[in-house]
Amino acid sequence: MTTFRSEATPSIDELMNRAASRALGDADCDGDAVTSVHVGNMAAEAFNRTSGLANALVASIGVHGASADRIENTSASGASAFLRGYEAVASGHSDVALVVGVEKMSAVETSDATEIIGRILHEREYAQGLTLPSLAALAAETYLRRYDASRDALTAIAMKNHANGAQNPDAQFQRRVSAQDVKNSPLVADPLRLFDCCPMSDGSAALVLARTTPTEGDVLVSSAASATDTHAVAERRDPIRVDSARKAGERAFDRGGLGPTDVDVACLHDAFTILELLELEELGFFERGTAWEATLSGATRRDGSLPVNPGGGLKARGHPLGATGVAQLVELTRQLTNRADGRQVLNAKTGLAINVAGFGNNSVCTILQRYDD
Amino acid sequence: MIDEHDVRLQYGFECTNCENRWYYDRYRCPDCGSTHFDDWQLGHGTLIARTTARVTPEDVRDENGLGLAEFGDGVRVIAQLSDIEGPPAIDDTVELAGKVPLRDDGGEPILGPRLVPVDSAGVDGGTHP
Questions:
Q1: Do B48 and A233 touch (CB under 8 A)?
Q2: Do residues A34 and A21 make contact, with C-beta atoms less than 8 angstroms apart?
Q3: What is the pLDDT of residue B3?
Q4: What interface predicted TM-score (ipTM) does this complex get?
Q5: Among positive and negative, which fits the CA dihedral A88, A90, A93, A98?
Q6: CA distance B33 to chain A (A)
Q7: What is residue A216's DSSP assignment?
Q8: From CA A167, how far away is CA A181, in angstroms rounded?
Q9: Residue range A36-56: average pLDDT?
């Protein structure tokens, strides 16, 4: 993958090329061996005035004659691209799949980026001036009030993920933040502050999937699944429920014959700190209304019972929309192969990632496992 | 006859086949699949969550009070909060009322209603972008 940046110099094509080339190199794989290419990207037309990303990529990196296309699922485009690559390989339609996620958001002014992202909302919610941070704030306000939860839990998530990002050379923010930094940051939407929100980012991540007889230490895809929820966020049965994440998680666990207690490390979609709490509960890691206490107790730190976002999460690694889902899986792969220098979770054999589109409109859950003979 | 988009925003939909009700435009009834709907007056609801967005799109007021209100039959709506005489609080009875510029970039504004405390209904919803 490329290092995530707030303003990367390379073009979107160059970001894709770099990530794809590195993934092929890591996999010791020639372009000619690739039989399918799956590019996750949300809005190249709007951010970069370009399209045809998959076709440009294959021509540039020496992939000839493969099946290639682009997958768009807003901020879960990356995980959706991975899901399609996995399905292609698992079904036998492809022997070697190259999955690439990419977004270059800095090519437009922040106000334009806000408008591009805002357009994913239902027309009636867009009309009211809603933004993703304001939807997260409604959830946060409800969660804190309903469970009499401490705001410190949200602060602890920001601090934890920044501390993890400080150990990740690919992270956009490689520095720790203090509780005071979080509490003194500007209010974005009550009760969420700037440090409760992920940044806008540029970057790309890539993986190679292949049908092969596994050997010791290989990373296997245990399962991958997705699920949708309502388009209008107001129509959810509860402002603090993310049913798409719950359903995707249940399907992934069921297909893999696994459960929450089997997971050693998780990469959750912490676009806003409150989402990490909600997803921990939706995925069955903690009972409803208790993830905030578990977070404060340190359970989700790297040395806790369930390390969450050891690479910094969206909060610190950054969130180039279409790249995030693939970057989560790159991080899990590094964790499961003991290559996460400085941030390694000990004895991690099973990892889970959840990549969320919009504000819970569509979630993709992927479970990876290290193969031990 | 209600046919103006900005006025339309004050109404929900009722399926003429199964009487299911909702607020957000959709092509088919989520329960029975019918494509035949009537307009449905939301009436009074209860504010169940609220926030104030301090970082807002350029065409939206600088501090955008927003609320989630629950109306009859489980129909829920997120909308701007009126700021006349103070915005409504959690558990207040509200209605979706007025016709104000919700988004205004200097061109043609998007007009629509805000969530207004019931005893304040009839006012125009307060501050504009």
A1: no
A2: no
A3: 42
A4: 0.93
A5: positive
A6: 16
A7: T
A8: 19
A9: 97
> Residue B51: phi, psi to the nearest 5?
-155, 170
H/E stretch holding A23 reads: helix A12-26
- Tell whether the model's pLDDT for residue A279 goes beyond 50: yes
> So what's the pLDDT on residue A223?
98
This prediction's pTM: 0.95
Q: What is the DSSP string of A56-67?
A: HHHHHHT--S-E
Task: Give, in order, the Cα–Cα distances in Å from A269 to each of A45, A158, A161, A222, B5.
Answer: 24, 13, 12, 20, 35
**A117, HSE (Cβ side, Cα atoms, 13 Å):** 31
Query: With bands split at pLDDT 50, 70 and 90, how would you rate the model's confidence at B2?
Result: very low
Check CB contact under 8 Å for A127 and B103.
Answer: yes
Buried b (16+ CB within 10 A) or exposed e, A117-130: bbebbbebbbbbbb
CA distances (Å), B61 to each of B64, B80, B83, in order?
6, 10, 11
Chain B residues whose beta carbon lies within 8 Å of the beta carbon of residue A128: 66, 78-80, 102, 112
Percent of all residues in chain A with a pLDDT value above 70, rounded to a whole number: 100
Q: Please write the tens of the pLDDT for every residue from A89-107.
A: 999 999 999 999 999 999 9
**Helix, strand, coil share of chain B (percent; to 5):** 10, 45, 50
Cβ(A125)–Cβ(A231) below 8 Å: no
Report the distance separating Cα A371 and Cα B1, nearest Å: 66
Q: What token pair was written down for B26?
A: 């959709």
